[in-house]
User: Fold this.
Amino acid sequence: MNASLLGPELVIVGLGLALLLLDLMVPPERRRWLGCVAAATVFALCTYFIAQSGRTGEVQTAFGGMYVLDGLAVYFKALFLLAGGVVLLLAVDWTDHAGHAVTEYFVLILFALAGMMLCASAHDFATLYVSLELVTVTFYVLTSYQRDHVASLEAGVKYLILGALSSAFLVYGIALCYGAAGTMSFTELASQSPALAGSKLFQLGMLLVLGGLAFKVALFPFQVWAPDVYEGSPAPTTAFLAVGSKAAGLVLMVRLFGSVLPDLTLKWEPLLMVISGVSILYGSLCAIPQRSLKRLMGYSSIANGGLLMMGLAAASKAGSAAILFYLAGYLFTVVCAFVVASVVVQRLGTDDLTALAGLHRRSPMLAASLTLSMVSLAGVPPLAGFFGKFVLIRALVEQGASFPGWYVLIAVALAGVVISFSYYFRVIKAIYWSGETAEAPPLVLSPLVQAALVLCLAGMLALGILPSFVWEAAVAAVAGLRL
Amino acid sequence: MSPLIWLFALPLLGALGLLFVPASRTVLIRRIALVITGVVAFLALDLLSDFDAAAPGAGGYRFVQQIPWVPSLGISLHVGVDGINLGLLVMGALVAFAATCVSREIQQRTKEYYVLLLLMVGGILGTFASLDIFFLYVFHELALVPTFLMIGIWGRGEKRGYAAFQITLYLTLGALVALVGLVALYLQSGLATFDLVKLTEHLAANPIPAARQAFIFPWLMFGLGVLVSLWPFHTWAPLGYGVAPTATAMLHAGVLKKFGLYALLKVAIPLLPEGAKLWMPWLAWLCLGNILYCGWVAMRQRDLNLLIGNSSVAHVGFVFLGLASLTVIGVTGAVVVMVAHGFLAALSFALSGWLYGQTRSLDMTRMGGLLQRLPFAGSVMVMAMMAGCGLPGFGNFVGEVLVLFGGWKSPVLICGGLLDFRWFVAAAAWGALIVAAVYMLRGIRTIWHGDLAEDWKGVVDPAGGWRKMPFVLLLGALLVTGVWPRLLTDRIEPGARRVVEAVEASRPAPNLASGSPTP
Assistant:
């Protein structure tokens, strides 16, 4: 037994419980400091994991192999903690304006974060299900947190119903897999991988599991919830949902398909290709007419899920490393966009694109941040999104040498990216040269928002200009995959 | 440190530095931009004078420097020049300086404008200095967002939003298709490096199987073709240039657009010689679309900028024809046209920008007799238009003549010894020069001659040496390349010869038994 591996998760959960207790003693006007303390702790843990990423070679397990700490887990934990830290900063600023009971919002974010970290280490269907449910159930509350806000409640209900449905898929799939393989442990499943890839029952089970995970990543055909929930939820929740929940689904997919069941992955390549291609087209085409920034980001999230899925479909280490790098860039980019969306919704009362008019004069920093974020999402150098797309395309072209069908997927991805330029750049247009109304007062940003934006911008630029460090870390993290 | 790095690092650092200057200090901001582009232009000219003295390194490149960037993917910041990109760099730096000079017309949001301008200049010069395919691509893309924003914010007329999106989407599509081709080339080489020099050496000895070359080449040819407005993917260019602010049109039409041609010449043709042999006849036919069709379209234009834009697209056809000929003389001519057309396009858009600043309209039907009020701008424009129809004495003539010779000598256009298209292509290109003369002379007549309309009594010429300088600079460059073409051709020829020899030396490599026989 090696329970000490669970330390970081225990710190996060313990922090959450401690905040709940402290909430009783701290006067309401000072509760925001609890959020700051939480953010600081999360950032400290994150630096610990980044420092750890150097020694990714060794694989440690705990609880009879149900929990694993390897390069993949360390990489994703650093990612989740980084996202959690920035989201907490944003949450403090958001609750300052929303005027709700604050502490429980921070605590829920911490619990979701703990669930995501457990996902990164899940090495058994039981751990997988439990950790994923911890994330999902917490998000039911987080999405509907604005109780006096109909859109938020609607988002919560939609997420609840569809989330419950996907959980049912997941648990039924796990049951079928267990029935076929006689075990839930990934270690044992991995040893039977070639035989299981031929079993019809097991394949049916995995299909349902894939559906459950596709819900998290917002992939076709489990994508319908994303735009509504993104639009209705509070901005910090949406940011965490877009980055954390998506990455949690992806780390499980990478582990299942890359490390545990490589034979099944090779067999299912066409299925994974279709899922990613349709997601890219659906997300990109539906984003074109959107008027609301958050809703647009919802469709963009579907398209990006499809792009990420391409890396998995490539069934190669290069593809998986590309997923990891892309997600790191995506984290900074999307969180940056939602920080801006959060401020815009708070101050202007709407996230309609027309409300962005003249933003470059009211707050040059907000305007520049949103612009760079959109440019990075579109994939223009020297920002993180470009290098992410570059390594993804590289992984695909590499596969194209063996099977020309890949070029169809490449063409679909190119079409998706070109379409995505039209809506990402429409946001930029809305900021810089749409019809400006009369002189609007400048927007003053709180220090927390400024810190979050600076962090995101630095991350976007660093990953774009000096991608070497993170790329090598991603390559090292996927070295243990069996692809 | 190689002076080439300063060439693009200075504008990029300048753009960064301008962010910290208060937006209200417009004069200071403009002066900083002028000083930076002026220093860059000086550095480029200095490079030209030092070029022969510098020791050539691997692949005939001089002023070489290599800085590792992502070693595991074989990406490094590798800069160096041979005769081909030397001409483009000098042209780019001079056009950048001229474009900054004529940016006086920008009165609103000057800080944002100059930041974007310097960013664009840095991207453009970085592209032509890079010997690493990855950076070649990255620097080109760097200029995309500034182009979009500059057209959108400071562009003219109601159609600027549409034009900004059209140009961005077209350029993205072209760049992405080319990127797939570049990545396929990188993976297929098996060398795991984006270094152009190493790739060229390696692939000369171990060529890619002909079937793969035939598959990869069109990705590059059409992708880069969209970037250079190859017919029928050219529709973005005239409209985009028509509404763009003067400096953006100058930099894009004059310099940035040459990226596609340059990459075709430096990457696609020498690294994929079999693909080039197979696809170049197609390119030769398509470029006749540029030369003839776009020339024809230019004849019907009423807006001066659309006329210049269409004629610019038509001129690009000559470059394609020179490249497609795959002869030393044709390729040399193509590079000369690239340089001369850069000066010419920049000069034409600078002049039309001045005219627009005076008249707030470029509708040629409303003009006439303007030479009375604008003797300086008018005479320069008449000379530019003469250069545009290939009058001897200007750089364009030299290039176009060499291209015609190349097309006539070209082995590519003889299809299997059965049909000989050389005379047809050469005759068509010659006919295009007549078409060019028709629309240019007509343009001169309607704008400059005749009676002066009442509306234009108030227009004024560029006054003072400082305002005249950018026009004189560009016109002078055109004349220098025209009367002393060996300044360019002597330096271009070795590079062109290497490219052509790489194609001639290639023998169809046997398809590898392993791997797929067909793409």
